[in-house]
Write a structure and sequence with these properties.
CATH topology of the largest domain in chain A: TIM Barrel
Shape of chain A: globular
Largest sheet of chain A: 9 strands, mixed
CATH class of the largest domain in chain A: Alpha Beta
Number of strands of chain A: 17
CATH superfamily of the largest domain in chain A: Alanine racemase
Oligomer: homodimer
Helix content of chain A: 25-40%
Order of helices and strands of chain A: EHEHEHEHEHEHEHEHEHEEEEEEHEE
Distance between the termini of chain A: 17 Å
Chain lengths: ~375, ~375
């Protein structure tokens, strides 16, 4: 079920077959540096989210630039990351079910593993699994700071879970997980600032509540690419979990930048290369990339370098560009770069990153092929 | 990049890990029989679409029940099907680009391969590739019968392409591809009947136009799960290309059945099994299946056996069920069956089908694990 790579290392850009998942290596490396510098400046730890890239080699590049480890959402992702050499992984999610708990506890014998809880029954199951595996797992209590998804209410409910964790010899209470996912995609700086201000108050209150009972939070984790400046400056969070910053996407580009900045600090570094495979109508170009090549859950991709045209009407294997608003008439076989609407689930459709050096220049070449090693790792 | 299967053959249903792609083998086999009988009754050939299942073993089951071969959309899919033993594959799509054409022409030395065209330049490229590979490819002219995607206008433009095909020694003119994708999902029988009536007139007209010039259409292919009764009864099409009928999905279930029938002829046979991994709120259950486990492009999944609740607010790894409209209170760890919104791109997210015998009974067991062998085969 692993497909052949769509290119060979060393080959010119024009020889990449399509659809292909392209990384502009120069932009990607600048994004890595920018976030590492931001975490330094803010005085917080960086633990980037590997749910975005699903790749141990990308994780290793983040760690080489100062990240303390990575986080991910699934046990199967954590297994692939640890097998690829990552030694510190937080599953920033609840792990429920006997098979998954057994795998997580076994993995904790081979790396520093932490995980989140939001239910007292789950604390007991986790403790039993860790005891059976003779491993030790660090546990963060997840609080709901606005996402209405996982997490207990801030304050006393978090304290009850901390006590349950502390009652187990195989578990260590590690602190709080306080991630506000919906705030990442609020469009104006004021909305994002306000949302994180409310989350800050709730999180600080919970930390106080825990401290009064003698619980110290080694880690207060959260934040994403849309809001990390706020959590980072709050003096409440000490670990940032941004993921998408390495690639950016069309959805994040719709956020109005914070403060007086004209542009986002991060560049588009991830593209889907597509071919014009239909020109049977003068007013339409059909691309060979549809739902199976692009995740359209957060909106359609934009066409790189052609802001006047729109990708629309995707079906499973096709997308359509209407040419009414442009004099551009792509020829049959022409290759087009698309910026995905949503990077994480788009990456999950591919087996290979095609890493390109000199992207956008006539000398552009395939420098590397990286496996999307945890693609499909949903369990 | 191939994940471990979420279950073992022989294990009881309750031991399947989640998210997992489940096939109810009994319903699936009834769907196979129902469509085979329909093609017999209509007096047309059946060439089911393998873009739905991406699996040589499922193709072989269709062929064992009388299908003449299968179709698919991508060269990479055709390669996997041929490698899995299928000897007759139509790529019901245009193939553009030198690498793909070379692969298609090479594949034609190992199986009966046909493909569609809608551009005269592509005919020349295809002929050159087949000549280089010393292979023979059968070519259908695709006409646009309403999809506004690929295909030339019906009538004379199709004749021009037929002449170009006939001018090449390596190509054989095979007939017409006339598929109306959007008609499959029109909700009322009257809309679908009207759409296919218009497509029938355009296709019949093109056949006449070709016949006047001496071109005989061995194949007139098209139709899908939503409209096949109309194409099948038209005496214009002679090859049905339905795909989704084997599994069905929430989107197809929204079609009002044809004629005076109360129900669709096909049953839901494909499910995503998910776990309740969040019950931190009394009024909400969080599932471990989001965008990476379900393709939500045609609407969200429905909850099997619980029509009163809705799956909504999916994020990459989570989905939410609000419990306000029900007295049902699922416990943490409870497993839930979802009917995907759209079967084809959901299948493409998984490496394994978990085939269950006795689905829905206490004796339900994993009978088979089938690889989604052409998962991710986008080139």
């Amino acid at each position: 079920m692993t497909t052949l790579p769509p290119a060979e290392i060393g080959s010119p850009f024009r020889n990449i077959d399509t659809p292909a998942l392209i990384v502009d290596l120069d932009a990607f490396e600048r994004n890595l540096e920018t976030m590492a510098a931001a975490a330094d400046r803010l005085g917080v730890r960086l633990r980037p989210h590997a749910k975005t890239h699903k790749s141990p080699i990308i994780a290793s590049k983040q760690i080489a630039r100062g990240a303390v480890g990575v986080c991910c959402q699934k046990v199967a992702e954590a297994e692939v990351l640890v097998a690829g050499g990552v030694t510190d992984v937080l599953v920033s999610n609840e792990v429920v079910g006997p098979f998954k708990l057994e795998r997580l506890a076994s993995l904790a014998r081979h790396a520093r593993i932490s995980v989140c809880v939001d239910h007292v029954d789950n604390v007991g199951q986790l403790a039993a699994a860790a005891e059976r595996a003779r491993s030790r797992i660090e546990v963060l209590v997840e609080i709901d700071v606005g996402g209405r998804r996982c997490g207990v209410e801030p304050g006393m409910p978090a304290l009850a879970l901390a006590r349950a964790i502390a009652a187990s010899k195989a578990l260590t209470f590690g602190g709080l997980q306080a991630y506000y996912g919906a705030a990442q995609h609020m469009r104006t700086p004021a909305e994002r600032r306000e949302a994180i201000a409310a989350a800050t108050a709730a999180t600080a209150d919970t930390i106080r509540c825990l401290a009064e009972d003698g619980f110290n939070c080694r880690t207060v984790g959260g934040a994403g690419t849309g809001t990390f400046e706020h959590e980072g400056a709050s003096r409440v969070w000490n670990e940032l979990q941004a993921g998408s910053y390495i690639f950016m996407d069309t959805d994040y580009a719709k956020n109005v930048p914070d403060g007086d900045k004209a542009a986002h600090p991060f560049e588009h570094a991830l593209f889907v290369l597509a071919t014009v495979m239909g020109r049977s109508s003068e007013m339409r170009a059909v691309l060979d990339a549809g739902h199976k090549a692009l995740s359209n859950d957060s909106g359609f991709p934009t066409v790189w370098g052609r802001p006047e045209v729109n990708y629309h009407r995707p079906s499973d294997e096709h997308g359509v560009i209407e040419l009414g608003a442009t004099s551009w008439r792509p020829v049959l076989g022409e290759k087009i770069l698309l910026i995905p609407g949503h990077c994480d689930p788009t990456v999950n459709l591919y087996d290979w990153y095609v890493g390109v050096r000199g992207f956008g220049t006539p000398e552009a070449r395939v420098e590397t092929l990286w496996p999307v090693a945890a693609r499909g790792a949903v369990t």
